[in-house]
Amino acid sequence: MDTMSNITSETTTTQPSTSKGAMQAQDQLEVSMDPPQIYVERTLALIKPDAIDKAEEIEDIILRSGFTILQKRKVHLTPEQASDFYAEHYGKMFFPSLVGYMSSGPIVAMVLARDKCIGYWRDLIGPTNTYKARETHPDSLRAIYGTDDQRNAVHGSDSYSSSEREVRFMFPDSVIEPIPAGQAARDYLARHVNPTLLGGLTELCKQKPEDPVTWLADWMIENNPNKPKIRQPIIQEPE
Ligand SMILES: Nc1ncnc2c1ncn2[C@@H]1O[C@H](COP(=O)(O)OP(=O)(O)OP(=O)(O)O)[C@@H](O)[C@H]1O
């Protein structure tokens, strides 16, 4: 499956570090850690008309399954839009009833993100046919929320290229930047993240706080070079 944008973010940086401590921290990181792998992938998920009343429940399962909902909108497709969305099935016996079903009521469209998102979401929704899903994948969303062989509650893109097309179809106004990969990702991180992060890691090692992750997050916010410089607000004296 052509699904993965694999971003390798190495801790090496071409940027000069701001302090000796930061350089030491960088050396230590290079010695002790494999380059972290960041996998980011998106997919289009739909909650179809037959499951719209269960949308909140399904969204809850989505979040608890490790997906992030990047975008969400409720739409009511016209028959023309439903035919366009399912154009690949044009000419099949079930096409007219599929278009009728998908335009019969509102749907929820979501852009989901996580590692291996397309595959994991397809696993979670289960087989196309609800009856089959109930037999073979009783815990899948289609087994639980689907109605029959057509009204199967949820949709998921089946490949990287269809996810890109379908996200653009449902969210035409949003600009989707291509996710940087390889050297572009390394350059981006080296320029915008690593110098600050290395400073934070150096301080973290000095302080050794009880909750290092929260401490580092606070430190990063406090020392964010992009933070707007706000002057002391003028406090109005009571009259
Ligand atoms: N044999 C069929 N009879 C009736 N409806 C069908 C049939 N096959 C597919 N459909 C409907 O058409 C939709 C698209 O079919 P497809 O083969 O692309 O399945 P899918 O990829 O599992 O589903 P989806 O694209 O909705 O995620 C199905 O979700 C289902 O609603």
UniProtKB/TrEMBL annotation:
Record bears the keyword Chloroplast: no
Intracellular or extracellular location(s): Cytoplasm, Cytoskeleton, Flagellum axoneme
Binding annotation for ATP: K48, F94, R122, T128, R142, N152
Active-site feature positions: H155 (pros-phosphohistidine intermediate)
Pfam families: Dpy-30 (PF05186), NDK (PF00334)
A biological process from GO: CTP biosynthetic process
Main location group: cytoplasm
Biased composition (Low complexity): 1-19
Region of interest (Disordered), ranges: 1-27
Nucleoside diphosphate kinase-like domain residues: 40-178
Gene Ontology molecular function, alphabetical: hydrolase activity; nucleoside diphosphate kinase activity
Keyword Metal-binding found: no
Transmembrane segments: none
GO cellular component: cilium
Alphabetical UniProt keywords: Cell projection, Cilium, Cytoplasm, Cytoskeleton, Developmental protein, Differentiation, Flagellum, Hydrolase, Spermatogenesis
Quaternary structure note: Component of the axonemal radial spoke complex 1 (RS1), at least composed of spoke head proteins RSPH1, RSPH3, RSPH9 and the cilia-specific component RSPH4A or sperm-specific component RSPH6A, spoke stalk proteins RSPH14, DNAJB13, DYDC1, ROPN1L and NME5, and the anchor protein IQUB. Interacts with IQUB.
Family as reported in the entry's similarity comment: Belongs to the NDK family.
PANTHER family, per database record: NUCLEOSIDE DIPHOSPHATE KINASE (PTHR46161), NUCLEOSIDE DIPHOSPHATE KINASE HOMOLOG 5 (PTHR46161:SF1)
Protein name as annotated: Nucleoside diphosphate kinase homolog 5
